[in-house]
Amino acid sequence: MSGILAKNLPRFHYAAPQASCIWASSRFDKKNYATTVKSASQGKKNIVYIDGVRTPFLPSNTDYNKLIAHDLARETLVNLQKKTGVPVDVIDYVIYGTVMQEVRTSNIAREAALAAGYSLHTPAHTVTMACISSNVALTTGVGLIHSGVYDVIVAGGVEFMSDIPIRHSRAMRNLMLKANKAKTPMQKLSLLASIRPGHFVPDLPAVAEFSTNETMGHSGDRLAAAFNVTREEQDDYALRSHTLAAQAHQNGNLSDMIPFNVPGAKGAVDKDKGIRVSTKEQLAKLKPAFVKPYGTVTAANASYLTDGASAGLIMTEEKAKQLGLKPKAYLREFTYVSQDPKDQLLLGPAYAIPKVLDKAGLTLKDIGVWEIHEAFAAQILANLKALDSEFFAKTYLKRSQKVGVPDLKKWNAWGGSLSIGHPFAATGIRLATHTANRLIKEDQQFGLIAACAAGGQGVGMIVERHPDAKL
Q1: Please, which domain of life does this record's source organism belong to (predicted)?
Q2: First CA to last CA across the chain, in angstroms?
């Protein structure tokens, strides 16, 4: 096996969580809320996260299957405006992330904003960076505000896996372009006569990395093997995620989710529909999904194809005060990382977490809320083991000692992408809103967001509770 060879790595076992958790240190201190982070003393503007919304996240080809991505994005923009009460003409700019683009709405940020009734004079653009696309939308907004260009920005993301773009084969596309230029009936007939069965083979979107021609699931299996992550550990973590997500729904914690009245459906879609609390015995029966027959990644311990959209509102703290708003959090620091897309495709969090902590002048113990994207249970467990590995720290992070293991009682306490769902470009804003809401609910000061993405990339973000924050 090439690449990472982890040594003496601990194992993590996840028992099904109880209905309540005990929250330990890093309680919120209103008197000293902005004194710990380095950036607070570096002359930067205070940028605040007002609130966020999302559609319910659904497995693809279910209740949303007759819609398009534009419909989901519009829904989040409409509901964000309703929830925050901010007039649409106050919004300076809109940024949306998406991965699987619909050709008719390639700049979906602009099209969705127009459909949502936002000002005709509000510019908008669309970004893509795989699973961290709405993180990019959010931090791009932060950069525009820091530069002084704008004060109020909506950032969001949308993914619609029920209707992905499928093209004709390249041979057929070339033929059709030539036919469009043909000037006489004979020229067109000649081109038609050249059509062969192979022309009708569709050009499907690749589920593999372009640079390595390997699926992310295969990378997850390799990572599990490299870090000695067992099938039992993965299934235990998946069960944890689904159990916590179900509890979060039952306790009304997922207040960012707005019911969606889907045209033609009976009643509103009002919950995430991929959450399945199973048993260890049932999970153990599933066969490997990628590396057969010896792999450990299955349909149950991997995130599933999901439809959904999300949106969040950010602005300067000064602007929030002018508008009479109560922000939920400060957006403090962020960083992006990238590494070998072959052997370290899913290790973005292990690189981003120590880097963003260093930027903020914080330690693991300062973080009261962890919201980490769950692509696969194997990916989460491998990143945890990497963070707790002296070998990984010295060899790959170039640090003198290991980073350590976060307090797992504070880790994805409302479930994660394995259970709630993972509409690629919408997950980043979901993570941000859950972080802000958990900081308030759990009386914590600092939250950390991290995620991996295709191409071997990743993100890390520090969020701080605002002293005026309310749910």
Answers
A1: Eukaryota
A2: 49
Nearest to 264 by CA among 57, 64, 54: 64
Express each pLDDT in 4-24 by its tens digit.
544 445 555 555 454 333 233
3-state secondary structure the chain: CCCCCCCCCCCCCCCCCCCCCCCCCCECCHHHCCCCCHHHHCCCCCEEEEEEEECCCEECCCCCCCCCHHHHHHHHHHHHHHHHCCCHHHCCEEEEECCCCCHHHCCHHHHHHHHCCCCCCCCEEEECECECHHHHHHHHHHHHHHCCCCCEEEEEEEECCCCCCCECCHHHHHHHHHHHHCCCHHHHHHHHHCCCHHHHCCECCCCECCCCCCEHHHHHHHHHHHCCCCHHHHHHHHHHHHHHHHHHHHCCCCCCECCECCCCCCCCECCCCCCCCCCHHHHHCCCCCCCCCCCCCCCCCECCEEEEEEEEEEEEHHHHHHCCCCCCEEEEEEEEEECCCCCCCCCHHHHHHHHHHHHHCCCHHHEEEEEECCCEHHHHHHHHHHHCCHHHHHHHHCCCCCCCCCCHHHECECECHHHHCECHHHHHHHHHHHHHHHHHHCCECEEEEEEEECCCEEEEEEEEECCCCCC
Between residues 164 and 219, the one the model is more confident about: 219
Mean pLDDT of all residues in the chain?
A: 91
Alpha-carbon torsion (412, 416, 418, 420), positive or negative: positive
Cα dihedral 242, 244, 246, 249 sign: negative
In this predicted structure, the answer to whether residue 366 has a pLDDT above a threshold of 70 is yes
Q: What is the pLDDT of residues 301-337, one digit of tens each?
A: 999 999 999 999 999 999 999 999 999 999 999 999 9
d(CA 257, CA 271): 7
Q: Backbone phi, then psi, for 441, in 5-degree steps? A: -60, -40
Three-point CA angle 276, 282, 288, nearest 5°: 95
Are 422 and 303 contacting, i.e. CB atoms less than 8 angstroms apart? yes
- Residue 451: phi and psi, rounded to 5, are -160, 150
Closest by Cα among 332, 306, 309 to 429? 309
Left, alpha or beta for 61 (phi > 0: left; psi -120 to 50: alpha)?
Answer: left
Active-site positions? 131, 452
Give per-residue pLDDT as tens, 229-279: 999 999 999 999 999 999 999 999 999 999 999 988 888 999 999 999 999
- Please name every residue paired with 461 in a beta bridge, in sequence order, or none if there are none: 334, 449
One-letter identity of residue 275: I
